[in-house]
Amino acid sequence: MAWDVRRTYYYLVCFATLLMMIIGSVQLVQNTLDLIFPEEHYRMTPMDVYDRYQRPGGNAATETPYTQEELEQMIEEEAARNERQARRRALRNLLGNIALIVIAAPVYVYHWRKVRAVEQGSPES
């Protein structure tokens, strides 16, 4: 078996695409688990909301600018926003990993067939 540039190229491409498929598969499983079992996010307290969204002209030393209902609504909105963002991020990562596998697999198969043809002595195309 003589090593030439073409044979080396085929093996290197096969190696790279195989690694891409392995990494994509591992991340695919991780992102699927993130979608099924989302991680807990920090839930804001009324003070967090108060500090973040102070009303203009409100004097913190003498008055509270928000009612308890407004604070609770802001907390719920923030929690829902965080959950939507986490779900969207996990879905985008999942689709990216599927694309990685779908693109790498045919490239791997094509080059591996070329390697097999060279090893068996068939004429290359």
What does this structure look like?
By secondary structure, the protein is an all-alpha fold. The protein has one domain (5-120). The chain has three helices and no strands. Helix 1 (5-36) packs antiparallel against helix 3.
Structural class: mainly alpha
Main beta-sheet strand count, sense and barrel state: none
How many domains, as an integer?
1
Rounded mean pLDDT is 84
Share in helix: over 70%
Which residue ranges are poorly predicted, with pLDDT under 50 across at least 5 consecutive positions?
none
What is the helix/strand order?
A: HHH
Put simply, the count of helices is 3
Number of strands: 0
Based on CA atoms alone, the radius of gyration comes out at 27 Å
What is the terminal separation in angstroms?
Answer: 19 Å
Any idea what the shape is?
A: rod-shaped
In percent, how much strand structure appears in the residues? under 5%
